[in-house]
Amino acid sequence: MNKFIELPIKSIETEFQDLNLNLYKMIGANNPILYSAAEQLFKAGGKRIRPIILLNIAKSTSNNNNILIEQKRLAEITEIIHTASLVHDDIIDNCDTRRGAHTIHNVFNNKIAVLAGDFLFAQSSWYLANLNNLEVVKIISKIIIDFAEGEIKQGTKSFDNNISINEYIEKSFYKTASLVACSCKAITMLNDSSNVKGNNLYLYGKHIGLAFQIVDDILDIISTSQELGKPAGLDIKNGNLTAPLIFTLKEKKEIYKLIGREFQSNSDVDKTIKAIKETNSIQKAKDMAIEHIQLAIHVIENENLVKEDKKNLLLICYYILNRFS
Questions:
Q1: Which CDD domains match (predicted)?
Q2: Contact partners, residue 228, CB within 8 Å, separation at least 6
Q3: How many Å apart are CA 81 and CA 123, to the nearest integer?
Q4: Which of 3, 67, 141, 150 is spaced 20 to 30 Å from 222 by Cα?
Q5: Chain segment 284-321, per-residue pLDDT in tens
């Protein structure tokens, strides 16, 4: 696979640049500490893959290639919700760096970080209400509920060596794929003239979201901390058993003992990573990601879209898989 696949931004370049500027305006707060904490996140950057997906869908499903103001705002709201979830994730996972920068709780403290995450969720809810579309509000609000449920599911299964692949996929849906799936559906609902069914794009978002999470979990094992922009092996250290480790348990029974003592030392984490790499568990996880990408591709190929727009939505699929090639 081509290692230089890039996210399709060219056709939405103006809207994408506006999004980055608007994110700073939208987090405006009277409290300088809250503002500083929220600003710290956006300064850390990121590829903004979620709004790129949404802006491409908005353009693809428009009859005149125009992206509505409400759709642009929804793409911004989605990125704020995602960013808020990262703040809380970093506290729960005790992660000191994110995208190569210090995390909010590391710069300030846990209390400020929790408040900053809550503040971003509140800001996104306010802007969401101002879209004046009750059905869209319902769909996007479900994402925040799913985030909480995903964290609880992950927490209750921490260091649980009986976790199944189905439970892992369910947790991954709540923590990652729900945001992509629900926002893909919602952004088509803002365009009354769209001839594409929101439920189809919900499935597209669901499958690329699941693939994205599986790839992320693979990268946590095979990449360096420098490449990830955060500590490598953090999932294992925190007892978050992901697909590669779940597959490995069937072949490497000695890992049960390391999980039982909750990976007490760094050498336990290193032994576990070594065991994973000695099996074909990474490939099995990759195959799962590929399956979900193929399902997403199937959705798009069966939609009546302009060739160039269809190509952009397919490029997103290939980009997600390309992250570990």
A1: Trans_IPPS_HT
A2: 219, 220
A3: 9
A4: 150
A5: 999 999 999 999 999 999 998 889 999 999 999 999 99
As given in the structure block, the two tokens for residue 256 are 């049960």
Residues 5/315, Cβ–Cβ less than 8 Å: yes
Residue with tokens 């590391």: 106
Q: Which two structure tokens, joined as six digits, stand for 196?
A: 């594409």
Nearest to 86 by CA among 46, 125, 54, 123: 46
Which is it for the CA torsion 139, 144, 147, 149, positive or negative?
Answer: negative
Specify the CATH number of the domain 10-322.
1.10.600.10
Q: Which two tokens stand for residue 215?
A: 């790839």
203: confidence class by pLDDT, cuts 50, 70, 90: very high
Surface-to-core class of residue 26, CB atoms within 10 Å of its CB (0-12 exposed, 13-18 middle, 19+ buried): buried
**Mean pLDDT, the chain, as a whole number?**
88
* Whole-number Å distance between alpha carbons of 13 and 316: 15
- pLDDT tens across 103-147, in order? 778 777 878 888 888 888 999 999 999 999 999 999 999 999 999
Angle at 222 (CA atoms; ends 96, 87), nearest 5 degrees: 25
Residues 6+ apart with CB under 8 A from 37: 104, 107, 108, 112, 113, 115, 116, 119
Query: DSSP per residue over 292-322, as a string?
Result: HHHHHHHHHHTS---HHHHHHHHHHHHHHHH
Give the integer Cα–Cα distance in Å for 42 and 25: 11
- Length of the chain in residues, anyone? 325
Q: Closest Cα partner for 95 from 242, 180, 220?
A: 220
